[in-house]
Write a structure and sequence with these properties.
alpha+beta; eight-stranded mixed β-sheet; 11 helices; 19 strands; SCP2_sterol-bd_dom_sf; GNAT family acetyltransferase
């Protein structure tokens, strides 16, 4: 089995494999641009003689961890031809990707799963959920009119002010993607997308919606509000479309208070897991994580089957981190009597804020004394995870 990086001259083979596996076709006229975009990726491939049998893309990105930014490796385009499936090729690529990300300083990784259980085997865990709300025309009821105003933009008139709204919004959450202007224009705006910004009476931008209106349906892909005035102002703008649409569908972070404040909040609401996340470098993540300062010391005994550099014990507390790594080939005859035992999945979901230590303890995913779990619960600040993008 030959594993190596796909070269620029082989990008067309990677595109062909994606077309087959994901059942779409890239028009010939678009292939030069598609090949150009792959220059930002590192593509690992497994080759059978001269044929690309399986591949995996790694995209160097960053995510917000509230005000901080962490280096992230985005996993995408994981695919193989049917005749090469169920023989360990994808497993090999997933493990190789962890080594590459570790060497490249990408301390966490995100991906969009086709199957959550499949990626859980390799240490990725649910990062966030999305909420999809469907509102019928009859429920498009205006709320108290706000003193601000709306301005609409398109990809051609996109500006830095919009990006600042998003960046400020991201500091409320963990896991949100750091976007640059090129990402906005290439990945966020659809062919028919419009973006409406709400400004307050001081002409300060306080939120936006990214949306399309087609065939008497309004689809809001993003609703980002920095305060409740902005939220109401954007809702009233949605209601202004009552003569144009029969339904409005809004995709939201799960923690967004919508539709609580509506006149009729009893609307169809769907909730589903979205992206997954994984700690790649546990030591660096634990050093950067904003644990509650001056807490008592606590041992975490971490197990990571596919990234063995993370295996070991980590002593947290007093604003410090001490690391006791496992020696290669060594194995403890008896499990540690002091501290919390957990795997990389549990650590990942705790650090991103999707699940709390006590929740995982109650489900049997954390092992330790109740006193230690309670201490860990106090050490981890309350966080909200979210992710709006796709790759």
């Amino acid at each position: 089995m030959l594993v190596r990086e796909v070269t620029e001259n082989e990008y067309l083979e990677a595109i062909k494999l994606s077309e087959y596996a994901f059942q779409y076709k890239v028009p010939e006229a678009d292939k030069p641009a598609r090949k150009e975009s792959l220059k930002d990726h590192k593509i690992l491939g497994i080759w059978d003689d001269n044929r690309l049998a399986a591949k995996l893309h790694m995209i160097p990105l960053k995510v917000f961890m509230k005000e901080a930014e962490w280096e992230m490796g985005g996993i995408a385009g994981v695919a193989s031809y049917p005749e090469y499936r169920r023989n360990g090729y994808i497993k090999t690529l997933m493990i190789e990707s962890l080594k590459h990300m570790q060497n490249n300083g990408q301390i966490v990784s995100l991906l969009h799963p086709f199957d959550i259980s499949f990626y859980r085997k390799y240490g990725w865990e649910i990062l966030s959920e999305q909420k999809k709300v469907t509102i019928e025309k009859i429920d498009l009821k205006f709320l108290e009119m706000q003193p601000g105003f709306i301005r609409r933009y398109t990809k051609e008139t996109h500006n830095e002010e919009i990006e600042k709204i998003y960046d400020q919004f991201c500091t409320q959450y963990t896991g949100m993607l750091k976007r640059d202007s090129n990402w906005w224009k290439q990945k966020i705006y659809g062919e028919d997308s419009q973006l409406a910004v709400y400004y307050n009476s001081n002409q300060e931008a306080k939120g936006y919606i990214l949306y399309e209106v087609k065939e008497r349906k309004m689809t809001v892909e993003e609703l980002v509000a920095l305060d409740h005035e902005g939220r109401i102002g954007l809702w009233n703008f949605i209601c202004q479309h009552d003569s144009m649409v029969e339904t409005v569908t809004i995709t939201l972070p799960v923690h967004e208070s919508f539709p609580y404040f509506m006149t009729q909040p009893k609307v169809k609401t769907e909730l589903y897991p979205y992206f997954m996340a994984r700690v790649v470098n546990a030591e660096e993540c634990l050093r950067r994580f904003p644990f509650t300062p001056d807490s008592e010391s606590l041992f975490l005994h971490l197990e990571d089957f596919h990234a063995p550099w993370n295996n070991g014990s980590y002593l947290l507390g007093q604003g410090e981190l001490k690391v006791y790594k496992e020696k290669a080939g060594a194995q403890c005859a008896h499990p540690p009597k002091k501290g919390i035992q957990l795997n990389i999945n549990s650590l990942s979901t705790i650090l991103f804020g999707y699940k709390r230590p006590m929740e995982l303890y109650d489900m049997g995913y954390l092992k330790g004394s109740k006193t230690e779990i309670e201490l860990f619960e106090k050490m981890v600040p309350a966080l909200k995870s979210s992710f709006l993008d796709f790759f």
